[in-house]
Structure formats: structure tokens, C-alpha cells
Amino acid sequence: RLEDIDRWDDFAKLYNEQAKSNTVCFRPFTADPGLGDLNRVERSIGYKFKEKRLLAEALTHATSIKPQTSCYQRLEFLGDAVLDMLVARHWAQKYPISGPGKIHAIKAASINNQILGVMCIRLGLHQHILHMSSELSSDIKRAVYTLNDAMEDARATPAGEPEGEFWEDFNYSKVLGDVLESVFGAVYVDSGFDFSEVEGVFERCIKPMLQKHISMATLKGHPVTALISRVQNEGCSEVTLKNITDPSS
């Protein structure tokens, strides 16, 4: 019950109570070579799981026919919320006097299909996704090639590496971003809903890329978003957008 939640670790108490009463159900998990090397994933994110089944679940796509674990959708839902909060807090702390429009815009640039896909590949999570989809295999290979090409092209520049939001034109499978979010959800649950643990993973794996490639100065956004931000910065808190079609056009 939400009225019983006062602190982060209260989620752990509620979760454990539901697990004991079978409100939360899991398939039994046993180690399987098809699940990949979970130890490598742990080393990549800098977190050691108490319950390996949670990490296995975070890496399991719905197309998998393996009976060892459930797919990642439940953890992805949780991880999406956790990562959203971490990113929002990061930018709010870095830009304490910026208006809500700008914070929203930079948060949107930090959590989207493209950048999450790049982070997933850089962490090597894509190598451990358990699935039975030839289409997804092709999508992952194409995503890796796209990133490698961008890195190779950047080596010829003075900076020697990609700058700014170099991923904005990438067409990545949503699965890559979902897996990254599900891993965050898995860490949150496995740690007993200890927010400091997922914050640690964020600091190690996500924050460096945000600091290196995204800032208010380099932010690229939709013209409508830029307009709303400008209006809010001028002191107008109520903005209404209307789509009007001219029947004569």
C-alpha cells in the first residue's frame, strides 16, 4: 500500500511481503549458457547481483523460448521511471536556475531511443540479450555498425571522437534502450530498492556520457520546444498550443 511508503527501503518490505504471499510470481531460474555471461554484465555496470535471476530477466526478450526466466518488460517499466528520475535530478542540479522548459528539453535529449541504444552497446549489454528473433539480430548488428562507423569517422576529426549528440540520426531498435532500462530496474530491485545503488550505476555508466556530449549550449531541440522554453523564460507560465487548419489552403 502506498500509504506505507515513507522511505526507499519501504518498497523492499512491501515487495518481500508480496513475494511471500505469491502476489509477485517468478519462474524458477537456473543458470544456462544461453543466458550469456552474467558476470561480464556485472563487471560492465559495476554491480554484483545477489539474485542472478533478476539480471537474467533484465536481458530476456519476449521472443525467447527459454523457460528459465520471465522477459524484461516488468523491470523495464520500473527502470524507465528510475532512470528518468536520475537524469532529471542530474540536470536540475547542474542547471539550478534554468526554467522547466529547458530542463525538460535537456532531459528529453538524455533519455531517448538513440542515446539509450548507444549506451547499451557501449556497455556491451547487446551481446547478452536472450531472444529468438532474426529481425532483432539484424537490428542489433546494424546498430553496432552504425556506431562503429560514427566512431571511425570521428577519429579523423581534431577531437578524435564524436562530439555533441552524434546519435540523433541513428535508427535504433527500441529493444536496446529497453534492456538498459530493465538493467536499472533489476539493480533497484536486487539492492532492496536502495536508490544509492542505482545512483552508483548511473554515475559510472550514464553520467560521463551525458557530461561529455550534452549541455544547454549544444542542445538541439524541436522548434516548438524551443518556443515554449523561450516563453517560459520570459515569465509566462501558461502556454497553449493550437493546431489550426486553413480550409482555403
Structure write-up:
It is a single chain. This protein has 249 residues and is mainly α. The protein has a single domain, classed as Ribonuclease iii, N-terminal Endonuclease Domain, Chain A. The chain has helices at residues 9-20, 38-45, 52-58, 73-94, 100-110, 113-122, 134-154, 174-190, 195-205, 207-213, 223-233. It is globular. The N and C termini lie far apart (55 Å).
Layout: helices, strands, pairs:
Elements: H1 9-20, H2 38-45, H3 52-58, H4 73-94, H5 100-110, H6 113-122, H7 134-154, H8 174-190, H9 195-205, H10 207-213, H11 223-233
Keywords: Hydrolase, Magnesium, Metal-binding, RNA-binding
Protein name: RNase III domain-containing protein
GO molecular function, one term: metal ion binding
The name of the CATH superfamily reads: Ribonuclease III domain
Query: What is the name of the CATH architecture?
Result: Orthogonal Bundle
* Percent range for β-strand residues: under 5%
- Give the H and E element order: HHHHHHHHHHH
Give the number of domains: 1
Task: Output the radius of gyration.
Answer: 20 Å
Q: Count of helical segments?
A: 11
CATH class: Mainly Alpha
Shape: globular
Counting DSSP E segments of at least 2 residues, the number of strands comes to 0
Largest sheet entry: none
Here the CATH topology equals Ribonuclease iii, N-terminal Endonuclease Domain, Chain A
Helix/sheet category: mainly alpha
Q: How far is the first residue's CA from the last residue's CA? A: 55 Å
Unreliable segments (pLDDT under 50, ≥5 consecutive)?
23-31
Domain RNase III: 38-192
GO molecular function: metal ion binding; ribonuclease III activity; RNA binding
Cofactor: Mg(2+); Mn(2+)
Keywords: Hydrolase, Magnesium, Metal-binding, RNA-binding
